[in-house]
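REQUEST FORM: STRUCTURE PREDICTION
Request ID: SP-0412
Submitted by: Lab K.M.
Chain count: 1
Length (residues): 207
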Amino acid sequence: MNSYLQKLFSIFYSPDQTRNSTSGASSVTDTGDLRIQIENLFKKHNIKSIFDAGCNDCGWMTLVIDSTKVEYHGGDISLAMVADVWRRRPELDVQMHDATTDPFPMVDLLFVRDVAIHLNNQDKRKLFQNWIASGIPWILITHNKEIQDKYNEDFEYDGFNFPHASANWEFTPWNFPPPADIIWEYSEGGRAMGLWHRNQFANILNS
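STATUS: Completed
RESULT:
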């Protein structure tokens, strides 16, 4: 666990602050189309188990779990968010977890919505290397196709501002191959979730 990241994101993520289930891009209302696409993608690629990195309050994701009956495991770096899930959905396997340092359980797919866009490039790389080391076959991660400048911005954490830098994983410094599949959150060519298989990477994340 990276104690700095834990403190930083615990400042910005708590049930009272985020209200993910009722407002914003992670609300039940605003994820309606996305949930349908995720459910279809799980069926298409025979995804039976997932680890949800940065699961927050699991508000909208519980609808996917209930619909698909996927074996669900989740983790979040904020104890307040994890404790909220423990109270509301005690049957879910949710734990304190840092996606950049902590091992992932062996599942079919690592689900990473938004988490990586709040990490600097050094920690983005750690997240991907952690996934590769886990042996998990698939990763489904936020992929911002609206970035067209052929490079991704980096930043330094300052402890005061909410960190954010969108990522198009096909551009520098990542230069990942095109995703094996993609689902669009709002409109084609914009914010998406890209699906990659570990076999697409070879030694690309070793440097």
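NOTES: The longest helix spans residues 121-134.
Reviewed by: T.R.
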